[in-house]
Amino acid sequence: MNKPIAMLSAAALALGILSGCGPAASAPSTSPSAAPSPAAPQESAQAEQGVFALSYSNVNFDFSKDIAQLMDQTPLVPQQADIPLTVADEKGASGVILVPSVREDGAGDYYLNALVAGNALQFTATADIARVESSVSGGVEVQDNAFSLVPAPIVVGAQEQEVITVTMADGQVYRVHTAHELAPVLNITTKQVAEENAGVYDFALDKFLLRVNTEGEVVYYRNLNCVGEKMAENFARQETADGDFYTTFVELNVEYRNMNGGYSSGLYLVMDENYADVDTVTLLPNAEEHHTHGEGYLDQHEFVVLGKGHYLTMSYTPMLVENLPEGVQGIDGGSSAYVWAGIFQEVQDGKVRYELNTTDYPMLYETAVEKLDYANSTDQGIDAEDRQGNTIHVFSEGFMDYVHPNSIDYTLDGQGNVDKLLVSMRDQCAVYQFDLDTGAVEWVLGGKASTFTGYEAYATQRKDEKGVEFTALSYGQHDARYLNKNADGTLTGNPRISMFDNQTGDAPFRIEPPAPTMAPNLTRTLQVELNVEDKTATVSHVINGVDLNALSQGYHIASHCGSVAYDNDNAVVIGWGLHGVVDGIGAAAPAGTITDKGYEDLRQGSRPVFTEYDLEHGTITFELYATRNPLIQSHEALFSYRTYKSGK
Q1: Cβ distance 536 to 454 under 8 Å?
Q2: Structural contact between residues 232 and 248, judged by C-beta atoms closer than 8 angstroms
Q3: Above 90 in pLDDT, residue 93?
Q4: Which tens digit of pLDDT belongs to each residue from 453-464?
Q5: Mean pLDDT of the residues in the chain
Q6: Distance CA 428, CA 51 (A)
Q7: Is there a domain that residue 338 lies in?
Q8: Strand residues in 103-172 grouped as ranges (E)
Q9: What is the total count of domains within the chain?
């Protein structure tokens, strides 16, 4: 059977391979309520606009009560250590508190939960301090049982980091470590970025939000392990006319996570330029005629800050739809199915400006490549096998994840309003451009319904999970971005886009050698110049992961997730996302635990977190690897969904 997708899905169930962009979930304790369904049987409004016809599903839902309860149960800052010493960041960064060591022999050791490099730490004691000494700068002046100091830089890979020893008048000693004991173990193997490309990389690993500069110093970190088994990921700096913001996703409802974390339900945390928490954002209620619903969850894949209180958001929402097109079999042979809808909102000052919903485009049910067994969809969950071989009942897996949107980009019109949305949909193996005002699908690149030709030399023949063959430019792609926007956000002429193309395959997946029918995992990045009038696509600036393997110690593959930013020909930043098998194997696994042709020793830490590549000269200028901290016991994969880079 030459079915790459179906075979991968079967392998995912048998081996616990991640099928999306996140870590494995714990077994749900209870089943959520049934999915929302259309409020009343009525004829949907229809309009022929763009490539696909619109047929509004208008499914009502409201998760506000659950969200409020779960937010109360999800702390964003852990409990302060119960000692007579507190700390704060001079500019008000959230999460800067003292937490006790988790080690049995760690009595007297305390750690900063967050740190902003270059900012003064302000310590205050409720008991008398005898003296304070830094392991780097020596004695520290104390006044009125308070003191302040700017910590020394945390250098990635350094054997010793700064410790501030506070001796109280009663003889009690508190050792404050500036580097967190649970932080991932980072290793920079290449560090030769030119001065003109100097900057800071933003990423998240094991619920640590991290910023590392091109000098190899930690600019910022924040530990969000206080959320427990919930996910915290996709950390990014976002620059706007209203100033800089920092954002990260925090999961709320683990029961809505798919078996292996490929989508999840939560909120986005927004921090200001000083890393102070200023907003939490969910899917907003809407009273618009064709999209009438209450509050919903956001998904981790994308969140864009356009300005203060102005966002583009994405949600995966479970729904019972009744608008499957003719020829697509639903439940009991009808037109109904349980699906995960992709919902995109533009919101400003707490109000919805525009909303798009993938269930308004019936053709998307037909053009899906994965998760298209609508006839067997259910809101009662299905049994599946986790990575430990345990059978668990998973609510979310009964819903068809037929689109799986994973990135949003945008253009502005001449008045500064959001005009177009560029949406990558993994389970369509395609990138779509929507007109936000009309909702029209204007063009499709790749997949079963591509409106372009001309890229055949870079395509492969693939089959969907039902065996239907199509020409695939990309396969499981992520992070599609406009490359030629003007400074004001407008786009003149034809679009040029970039894409992280996972080219997800079955190997290396504990298979040696791969069977002839199995496609390899050949991750790449590329640019595509689109001629919208002629409907042609020209591929260029291709970077093949296998070509980078010869330039460094690592394997440059990603079965899921990932990112690319073509900043210039000398600075292409590639985040290597997730490999569903490799990242779940411990760094101490025996050599050869997983192997395949060209990949002799796959293990956690054998893939870089990110690479900066000089495309002009064919050299790697920066590369960072990570392994899990030995103090963290977790069955989840160690990976960063994306990596971003910004200026100093």
Answers
A1: yes
A2: yes
A3: yes
A4: 999 999 999 999
A5: 90
A6: 15
A7: no
A8: 109-112, 114-116, 121-125, 129-134, 138-140, 146-149, 154-155, 163-168
A9: 1
Can you read off the two tokens belonging to residue 284?
A: 């907003």
Determine the Cα–Cα distance for residues 430 and 286; give it in Å rounded to an integer. 28
CA nearest neighbour of 574 among 643, 625, 481: 643
CA 342, distance to chain mean position in Å, is 15
Closest C-alpha among 499, 481, 490, 484 to residue 539? 499
Task: Report pLDDT for 387.
Answer: 57
> Is position 140 within any domain?
yes
Any idea what DSSP says for residue 107?
A: T
- Please give the residue that has the higher pLDDT: either 642 or 506: 642
Separation between Cα atoms, residue 206 and residue 46, nearest integer Å: 45
Indicate whether 469 belongs to any domain: no
Length of the chain: 648
For 150, the domain range is 85-177
Record the pTM: 0.92
Q: Do the beta carbons of residue 109 and residue 172 sit within 8 Å? A: no
Span 542-555, average pLDDT: 95
Instruction: Give the angle subtended at the CA of 521 by the CAs of 519 and 522, to the nearest 5°.
Output: 110
pLDDT, tens digit, for every residue of 264-303? 999 999 999 999 999 999 999 999 999 999 999 999 999 9
What's the gap between Cα 583 and its chain centre?
15
pLDDT of res. 582: 82
Residue ranges in 418-544 assigned as alpha helix (H): none
73 token code pair: 């149960």
Cβ(250)–Cβ(76) below 8 Å: yes
Write down the pLDDT at residue 303: 99
Using an 8 Å Cβ cutoff, are 284 and 278 in contact? no
Query: Distance between CA atoms of 551 and 544, rounded to whole angstroms?
Result: 12
The phi, psi pair for 567, rounded to 5°, reads: -65, -45
The CA distance from 616 to 182, in Å, is 38
H-run or E-run covering 620 = strand 619-627
- In 10 A of CB 482, how many CB atoms? 17
Q: For residue 586, what are its two tokens?
A: 């411990």
Residues with Cβ within 8 Å of 410's Cβ and at least 6 positions away in sequence, in order, are 304, 312, 418, 419, 420, 421, 422, 436, 482, 489
Is 101's pLDDT higher than 70? yes
> CB–CB of 221/183 below 8 Å?
yes
Could you report the per-residue pLDDT of 235-273, keeping only the tens digit for each?
999 999 999 999 999 999 999 998 666 899 999 999 999
pLDDT of residue 47: 45
Check residues 522 and 366 and name the one with the higher pLDDT: 366
Q: What CATH number corresponds to the domain at position 158? A: 2.60.40
**Bridge partners of residue 535, in order along the sequence:** none
Q: Encoding tokens for residue 354?
A: 């525009």
**Cα 92 from Cα 263, distance rounded (Å):** 32
| Cα–Cα distance, 384 to 396 (Å, whole number) | 11
Two structure tokens written together for 147:
């003191």
The upper half-sphere exposure of residue 159, i.e. CA atoms within 13 Å in the direction of its Cβ, equals 0
Q: CB within 8 A of 221, min separation 6: which ones?
A: 114, 115, 154, 180, 183, 208, 209, 210, 211
* Residue at 137 is within a domain: yes
| 607 in Cβ contact with 599 (< 8 Å) | no
3-state secondary structure of 514: coil
Position 518 confidence tier, pLDDT thresholds 50, 70, 90 = low
Two tokens, residue 189? 């193997």
